[in-house]
Amino acid sequence: MSDWQDIATAPMDGTEILLASIGQTFDGVPVPPRVTLGHYTVGDELLRDAGDCGGACRCPEYEEIEPFWMSWDGGFTDENPPTHWQPLPPPPIRESSPEPAAFKPQLLGYDECRCILTQYCDGTCRPIYSRPPNE
Fold it and tell me: CA angle 51-73-24, nearest 5°?
């Protein structure tokens, strides 16, 4: 199933999208189909540097150009325009490993009692607990 849509339905607000063209011909030479990232030009992209004003201030001057489909590889022209588009896919999501369960030590028993006053010892003075697996 293809999500390609006709270029006439593409956003023309500068949104980055996937652009595609079907195989075309230019001056009798076949132009292969292609897919690339691009957008419709808007705003300052429509200003071409025309040098400066020529005065002492040397203010930059620009001339306004017609909007066009701009691709990052620069391959679309009026003669070979994009014919289809589709939105960019969402970025990948970092797959997080599940949080390890919190380690809860288990009482394994008691070590030999070393109390000085053994008559007061209940035998629980040296408990032995399980350790986390990585220790």
Answer: 115
Within 8 A by CB and 6+ apart from 113, the residues are: 121, 123, 125, 126
User: Which phi and psi (to 5°) does residue 97 adopt?
Assistant: -75, 145
Per-residue HEC secondary structure of 58-127 comes to CCEEEEECCCCEEECCCCCCCCCCCCEEEECCCCCCCCCCCCCCCCCCCEEEECCCCCCCHHHCCCCCCE
Domain boundaries, the chain: 5-87, 103-135
| pTM (two decimals) | 0.57
**DSSP 8-state assignment for residue 31:** E
Q: Are 73 and 44 in contact (CB under 8 A)?
A: no
DSSP β-ladder status, 17-21 and 29-31: unpaired
- The β-bridge partners of 5 are 85
pLDDT, tens digit (0-9, with 9 covering 90-100), for 120-130? 566 666 677 77
